[in-house]
Amino acid sequence: MSDRPKRILQVLPKLDTGGAERVVIETAEALTASGHKTLIACENGPLMQQAMRAGADILTMPLATKSPFALRRNASRLAKVIKEQKIDLIHAHSRAPGWSAFWAARRTGIPFVTTYHGTYNEGFPLKRRYNAVMSSGDRVIAVSHFIADLIRARHGVTEERLRIIPGGVDVQKFDPAFVLGDRVARLAREWRLEVDAPTILLPGRLTAWKGQRLLISALSLLRHKDAVVVLVGDDQGRESYAQSLITQAESLGVASRLRLANHTEDMPAALMLADIVVNASTDPEGFGRTIVEAQAMGRIVIAANHGGAGETIMNGRTGFLFAPGDARDLADAIDKALDFSEAERLAWAQQARHLVQVKYAVAGMQHAILGVYGELLG
Description:
Blueprint: E1 7-14, H1 19-33, E2 37-43, H2 48-53, E3 57-60, H3 68-84, E4 89-92, H4 95-108, E5 112-116, H5 125-131, E6 139-142, H6 145-155, E7 162-164, H7 181-190, E8 199-203, H8 212-219, E9 228-232, H9 239-252, E10 258-260, H10 267-273, E11 276-279, H11 289-296, E12 300-304, H12 309-312, E13 319-322, H13 327-338, H14 342-359, H15 362-377
Parallel strand pairs: 1-2, 1-4, 2-3, 4-5, 5-6, 6-7, 8-9, 8-11, 9-10, 11-12, 12-13
């Protein structure tokens, strides 16, 4: 992409706090640093300011809607933007805006790229057709080998179009050497944590498939009766679900050992505060960014053995995998990790951080995505 600065348009429903949204922002950072122009079309969200700091121009559009009529209107709006802004390539990160982007790209003749971030449920016959837009790009990016296999099986995407680019983590931001003690102490006070209490952290928005109920059940089964679980994530208006977690903990006699911490901007400090980080998702995750972030911070990670987790954890060396949905297996893995000596923890921390530096540094992800753009624009 060296002949002239390119103009790349990324589309997604909303700049919310999730893995796909962070990939969009990190791609914008790479484009800006390389002298290209990046635009993001979406609805307002909490990461809006961060995207603008990355150098992106924000085009506010109602792209979260799934109405067929609205999708067509959005396609016309995007086509107009493409012409007016002289966009060279459009990159979709979600299905509803993906359809609008697909139609706009075909109408204007520019390349269309998609990133397949998740498994996308296929609960009724038309759902596969709806999902198929994410396999319709001139290049289709899979966030893990697990997702690549799913794309091949469901949609028959050829290797010519398919690219595997795992998510990345900023190994300078997520570096235990640079997380000062006052940041950790502030969170410990805010979350009412005792100094010596083992802390088990589950990062992720409060929604049932993230497995918060499963972890609370495991908490009641632990040998380490002083361990505390901290659920870090926004309920996004699901107040009844958050209350149900408290009710569950009360019924199991572990309410005093549960903290609902809401969202935090200082995730490196939150991870530094944890002894164990858990990913208990009941459905397979395409990649699982929090797993990689936790390992970058040298934490022991315990995750359900499905989806992308098996690729990002070296089982028995940087973390443990447990049987999905099995509270007893999860509890046993947590107890095993909490039994570690300081020397064992240090050895695991070094291996975990090395794994991330080698395979999952954000710079590698950014370079690979810009390489895909270059294939189509070079």
